[in-house]
Amino acid sequence: MIAEKKPVAEVILGGMDRRVEKRFWTARNIGLAVLGGFVLIVLGYLFFFMDGSSRLHVEAQRLTISTVTRGAFQEFTPVSGSILPRETFFLDAVDGGRVECRYVEAGATLKQGDPILKLNNANLQLDVMYREALSYEQINNARLTRIAIEQNSIAVRGQVADVLYQLERAARAYRRDSLLAMKGMVSDLEFKQTKDDYAYWLRRREIARESAEQDSLLRVQQLGQLNASVKRLQANLDMIKRNLDALVVRAPISGQLSSLNVEIGQSTKPGERLGQIDVLGSYKVRAGIDEYYLSRVRIGQPGAFEFSGQDHSVTVSKIYPEVREGKFEVDMEFAQTPPEGIRRGQTVQVRLTMGDTAEATLIPRGAFYQNTGGRWVYVVDKSGAMAVKRAVTLGRQNPMVIEVLAGLEPGEQVVTSSYDTFADIDKLVLQ
Asked: Measured between alpha carbons, how far is 257 from 90 in angstroms, rounded to an integer?
């Protein structure tokens, strides 16, 4: 009998039946997994690095990342202003001279009319004496002319009276001879002579009346011109005296002598600035503004600044359009009483309002604006691992935020720090 052959496995296992389980991580499966991972890595590389855009790896902690928000926006610009007296009166030398005496010092409180200093001008004094004598002479000549006009008027009135007297006598003779001629008691020749005399004096009366009327009109005109001339001479004389009195410089108003720029013995020129007086208790703010805003600043434009922990409102009251070193100046008046403790020369930071408050999409102001001019920004994607370059449209701005017109939505995150080291990179890989 031939023995039946058994499987080797059963022989080895001693005749016991056991199931051999198949392992998953075989060499073949491991090879397939490695190959699949390699394919994924290649696909990831192609996705991240083969799309044609430039990338730069940067440390996220070195960047300033800000969130786009929605809120109230008001455009304003900060300007540096100085506190000045609202009213200032300058002291100028009228004719100049040498400083002979100083009655007060800078910082003194003065009343209107108080003497400040005295100038000595010998040439002016001699000139005043000459002009004064000349004016008095002309005034005396005018008075003599007035007397001559009055005398001529009297003479004309005397001539009229004489003509009227002679006319009355001729009229009586004519009436008498007319009666006698009717009775034949006077010759025709004598009557004719009497009649001619009467007619003559009638004509003389008309001439005398015309002469008196013309003399009266001329007299009124001459006296009017003479009076005007005398007034001008008197005014010139008063001005001459005022020029002499102006050698003593007096306070034109009550206030504080904030500056006095001359010393005893110093020579001053005509029109030279000697000092100034400030009206106390009334102030204004003078500020320099960038010429970019020249067309947008108007009278009455509001502003505010903080002093002693409180905001104080001001409004633009005067604009100086002249631009110097890229800036123009404005004067601002306080909307209410100036704050207590404020002093001339103090510097304040005024927030000058450039528009009304409105709802807008906002992005915090940052150094990126100087690099891009507001044309594009880096926007962080949802994963937070990458910031992608995106074109935007930005509008008005203030020192804190910039208005977003297009390209960004509230809630998105934007890199707002400087882009100096990024050149024109398309994507930033945040590490």
From this structure: 10
Q: For residue 302, list its beta bridge partners.
A: 315
- What is the average pLDDT score of the chain? 82
Backbone angles phi, psi at 87, to 5 degrees: -125, 130
Instruction: Compute the residue count for the chain.
Output: 431
Beta-carbon neighbour count of residue 377 at 10 Å? 28
Question: Bridge-partner residues for 70, per DSSP?
Answer: 361
Structure tokens at 298: 């108007």
What is the DSSP-derived secondary structure letter of residue 185? Answer: -
Cα(220)–Cα(223) distance, rounded to whole angstroms? Answer: 5
Long-range contact list for 294-299, CB < 8 A, 24+ apart? 294/321, 294/323, 294/328, 296/354, 297/330, 297/352
Instruction: Tabulate helix, strand, coil % of the chain (nearest 5).
Output: 40, 30, 30
- Tokens for 199, please give them: 């007619």
The side-by-side arrangement of strands in the sheet containing 358-364 is: 69-73, 358-364, 401-406, 393-397
DSSP assignment of 39-61: HHHHHHHHHHHSSS--EEEE-GG
Dist CA 249 CA 367 (whole Å): 56
| pLDDT for 1 beyond 60 | no
Q: CA 154, 159, 164, 169 torsion: positive or negative?
A: positive
**Quick check: 16 pLDDT over 60?**
no
The pLDDT tens digits for 347-362 are 998 888 877 777 888 8
User: Binning pLDDT at 50, 70 and 90, where does residue 329 land?
Assistant: very high
Q: How many CA atoms lie within 13 A of 13 on its CB side?
A: 11
Distances (CA, A) of 131 to 137, 144, 154, 229, 408: 10, 20, 35, 16, 82
What SS3 class is residue 27?
A: helix
